[in-house]
Specification:
five-stranded antiparallel β-sheet; five-stranded mixed β-sheet; Sulfite Oxidase, Chain A, domain 2; 12 strands; mainly beta; single chain
């Protein structure tokens, strides 16, 4: 008598250009989703960048603008946060009447442990200027928007209070391994308790 084959879970494809893949949550039985099953949400195609020639600028309303290498960043005290990341469109497929956007079922959500440098540390070193209101984080991914005719990079802003929160980090590891490229390698912003669209991948620059 042959043993029944064990079902191997895999991501559910919602779109390929850009790539959007859903976590098979029915197979998740612990509080940390492995890299291969973490949902993928992209607005544009994947960027091209090199770890060996990677620099992170911090500029804007600061007294000492920074240009940090990965080696610089790894020398700062780190913090690990266990965070749920969820797309704001999670469960959109269940809406009645139907609405525009990726038709996620219940798997545009994943949880795991992210390690990195508190954004607050880097902002304090750069010297935030008086009257600063927000921190804008820009990613290397870019493309056309459906509502406008120009090319845009993926960019999000945080109010200064959220940017300085002790759990808002610039992450370089996920579950004790370097962040996979498709999830933001080499650096990804992690903003706990906010929808995942705030957690910018492939950070290009940070502006106060």
């Amino acid at each position: 008598m042959t043993k029944p084959q064990k079902v191997k879970p895999y991501l559910t494809t919602r779109s390929l250009l850009p790539e959007n893949q859903e976590t098979p949550i029915q197979f998740i039985n612990n509080d940390s989703v492995e890299n291969q099953l973490f949902f993928r949400r992209n607005h544009f195609t994947y960027p091209t960048l090199s770890y060996s020639n990677y620099w992170l600028p911090i500029n804007g309303v600061v007294s000492a603008p920074l240009l940090l290498s990965m080696q610089d960043i790894l020398q700062y005290p780190s913090k690990t946060v266990e965070v749920v990341l969820e797309c704001s469109g999670d469960k959109r497929n269940l809406f009645e009447p139907k609405t525009f956007g990726e038709q996620w079922e219940k798997g545009a959500i994943s949880q795991g442990k992210w390690k990195g440098v508190p954004l607050r540390t880097l902002l304090e070193i750069s010297g935030i200027g008086d009257g600063a209101k927000e921190v804008v984080v820009e990613g290397y991914d870019y493309g056309l928007r459906t509502d406008l005719d120009e090319v845009y990079t993926y960019t999000r802003s945080l109010p200064i209070e959220k940017a300085l929160h002790e759990d808002t980090i610039i992450a370089y590891e996920y579950n004790n391994q370097p962040i996979p490229f498709k999830h933001g390698y080499p650096l990804r912003l992690i903003v706990p308790q906010w929808y995942a669209m705030a957690s910018v991948k492939w950070i290009k620059q940070i502006s106060v």
